[in-house]
Structures are given as C-alpha cells and as structure tokens.
Design goal:
Oligomer: single chain
Strand content: 35-45%
Distance between the termini: 77 Å
Structural class: mainly beta
Number of strands: 10
Helix content: 10-25%
Length: 189
C-alpha cells in the first residue's frame, strides 16, 4: 500500500462529509408563493422592462378583498413592481421621461388610477409616498369572461408608435395606452 495515498483519501472523504453536511443544512424553500417575472418589450425604438412578482388567485376574492378598492396597491406581490423606459413615453397621454419607476395602482370597480412613482426600489407599498408620484392616469377596467389565475402584466397591440400595457388578474383586465413621442416614433420606421 502506498503510504502517501492515505492522506489523499482522508481529504476526499472529509470533503465529501463536509459537502453532505452543508447540503443537509440548506433549507428547502420550495416554490415561491408569488414567483418573480421580468417582461422585456421593444415598442418602436423604446425598450420597456417590467419586473414584478405574480400572485395567484388561489380560491380567494381578489379585488375588493385581498386587493382593497380605493387603496394604493403595489400591483403585484413582494417588492413594488418596477417599470423601465429606455426613452420617453406617454401613458394614457401623460408624459414620462426615460427612467426606472415603481408602478402602483389604486383599483376601483369603475376606474383605476395608474401611478408612476419615482421610488423604484421599495418593498410593497408600505413606504409609498404620493409626493414621489411622477404621473397619475385613469384607466377603465374590462371584465373578463374567464378568470386568469396568476397576475399578469403584458404589452400587446404593438405598433411602431404605440402599444397597450395590460394588467390582468382574476376577471379583470386594465388596459393602459403607451404612446411614443413623435420624435421617437419618427425614427421607428
């Protein structure tokens, strides 16, 4: 037997023991209750990125209960939803310069308030500060015939100069018009 083989084998066994001990101590976190999601979409020459966590209905009453009416909502779960525009845009006619913002909403059965807030890095809406609002616009919710289990933000109806941002959950879709300023739209051919 090679006398130098024992220390090498001892190191291998010690390493395996240490690795198995560390693996055993790692908690199994399981799937996230509200998984994180990032949407990236180009509209004309403007890149839009939206990061949010996506809660599920899970047999609950959503709007008017889990998400109260007439109160600021983080528009998703966990951290406040972040929206980034690489160039200036308009949301339902309100001007928004390029930058990263928090997207908040105030749900209502007849009319939602869509809020673009300068406080992009915050947890939920607990430290929401109305003084940091860049713009507030109104949007009319649309009743869906079939429920959507998982909260979804999408950008659809994409054209060279416009698109529709949709907030969709349960039996509600809230469309918000995105329009590029004429200068950005003219270079999108």
């Amino acid at each position: 037997m090679n006398p130098n083989a024992f220390p090498a084998r001892a190191l291998v066994f010690a390493g395996l023991f240490l690795a198995s001990t560390l693996i055993a101590q790692t908690p199994n976190s399981g799937p996230a209750a509200s998984p994180a999601s990032t949407l990236k979409q180009r509209v004309g020459t403007t890149d839009i990125e939206i990061s949010c966590s996506r809660p599920g209905v899970k047999n609950r009453t959503i709007f008017g209960d889990i998400v109260p009416y007439d109160k600021v909502w983080r528009t998703g779960a966990n951290e406040a939803t972040r929206i980034t525009f690489s160039g200036p845009v308009q949301l339902n006619g309100a001007d928004i310069p390029a930058g990263t913002y928090a997207l908040f909403t105030i749900p209502d059965p007849k009319e939602w308030t869509i809020i673009i807030n300068k406080g992009a890095k915050q947890w939920g809406a607990f430290r929401y500060d109305e003084k940091a609002d860049l713009v507030r616009v109104k949007a009319t919710p649309v009743k869906l015939s079939e429920p959507v289990e998982t909260f979804t933000i999408d950008i659809n109806d994409i054209r060279d100069t416009s698109a529709t941002l949709n907030l969709i959950w349960d039996k509600t879709r809230v469309p918000v018009k995105i329009t590029l300023p004429k200068t950005a739209a003219s270079t999108a051919h």
